[in-house]
Amino acid sequence: MRYDRPLALAILDVDHSKAINDAHGYATGDQVLRMLSARLTNSLRRTDVVARYGGEEFVVLMIETTSLQATERIEQLRRTIAAESTEVYRLTVTVGFSAGVAGMRARDDRLGAATLLDRADARLLTAKREGRGRTIGDAAD
């Protein structure tokens, strides 16, 4: 904030995770989440933070990154991960997710962490309502 550098936050939600759990059990669903977490962590910069947010959701905090840059990066990752098949307990699964992205700069200091989370979550809900398997961000952040 002090140096007016951008910050972006993305919330990712695994698409159709209930179907994975129902068809293959919670152990498989948990393994899918672990795989996705590792894939995200290994595909982003060391300065980016990936954390499980709850259930089947993850938060990605990206410093020195505008909302537009974060949206492009998360969408690129979403497409790459969705195109891959992964072996989990001798099952071949494909993992898709939806994402919402919000960003801020120091001039937006009235926006706290909760507001940033709320904005990203609202965009995630839009992505899910529009059919899942997409990333929604705002270039104006």
Please outline what is shown here:
The chain is of the alpha+beta class.
Structural notes for this entry:
The chain has 141 residues and is α+β, with helices and mostly antiparallel strands. It has one domain: 2-Layer Sandwich (Alpha-Beta Plaits). 42% of the residues lie in helices and 28% in strands. The strands form two sheets. Strands 2-3-1-6-7 form a five-stranded mixed β-sheet. Helix 1 (17-24) packs across helix 2.
Relevant terms:
141 residues; alpha+beta; Alpha-Beta Plaits; 5-stranded mixed sheet; two-stranded antiparallel sheet; 7 strands; elongated
Widest beta sheet: strand line-up: 2-3-1-6-7
- The CATH superfamily turns out to be Reverse transcriptase/Diguanylate cyclase domain
User: Which percent bin holds the helix content?
Assistant: 40-55%
Strand residue content: 25-35%
CATH architecture: 2-Layer Sandwich
Uncertain stretches: none
The description of the largest β-sheet is:
5 strands, mixed
Query: Mind telling me the C-alpha Rg?
Result: 15 Å
Broad CATH class: Alpha Beta
N-to-C span: 14 Å
The CATH topology assignment is: Alpha-Beta Plaits
